[in-house]
Structure formats: structure tokens, C-alpha cells
Amino acid sequence: MTLIWAKQFNKKWTLFTDDCVTMGQSQVSAAKQYRPKLREISWKNYDLVIASCWGTREVDLMLNLLQAKLEIGKVKDTIDLEYVIQTTLVEGRKTLKELTNDPSIWLLILETKTNTLWHTDDYSMFAPQ
What we know:
Mean pLDDT: 84
Number of helices: 3
Radius of gyration: 15 Å
Number of strands: 9
Strand content: 35-45%
Structural class: alpha+beta
Strand order of the largest sheet: 5-6-7-8-9
Helix content: 25-40%
Low-confidence stretches: none
Distance between the termini: 25 Å
């Protein structure tokens, strides 16, 4: 199970993920052996850091869709960015539903320049306080 969480330090959001995976009697770094649980997407005037939780195939598909949408979309401010992310979640969830029995993913998305954090849970997305 992957743990992701966010906390504010000096009014700036910080993302955290766990790293340890137990294989038999030994512990292995999940980030070094499999894939990082934090992914950065940078384009134009926005930088996103995304912490992901759930199956790697599902998360990778959703993040690839999001990156493609951001590259072709017109994003002027964080409201437009939120709209692109929300519509990508809905479209991606429909695609995942065709591919797997459990299309659940959870994301913490941090836009670093405006210090805006969103939490996603399947179709929904909200900004924690």
C-alpha cells in the first residue's frame, strides 16, 4: 500500500510519500526499484508535482493523459488548470473502467508557483484547507 500526504510548512505545501516495500524478509526502495511516487510535469508557466497512490498502470495512464491534455490545452490561470485536471480525470476514469475492474486512483497535485494543492478521489477533486 502506498501512502501519500501533504502538510503545510510556513504556508507552503509539501508532499510526502512512503518509500519502503517489503519483499520476503528484506526491504527495498520502491522509488529506486520500481518507479517514483512523485512525478513532475512542467510546461509553459506552470509546474506540477503529483503524488500518486494505487496501481502503477492506472496512475501512469492517468498522468500521461493529463500531460497530453496540458500540452494541447490553453491554460491561463489556476482555474483553467483545475478545469483541465478535472475533465482529464473524468475522461481517464472512463478509459480505465474499460481496462480494469478497479479503476481507482488517488492523486495529490501541487502547483508549485501558486502553492495550490488539489486532492483527487476518483471523479472528485478538491482543494484541502
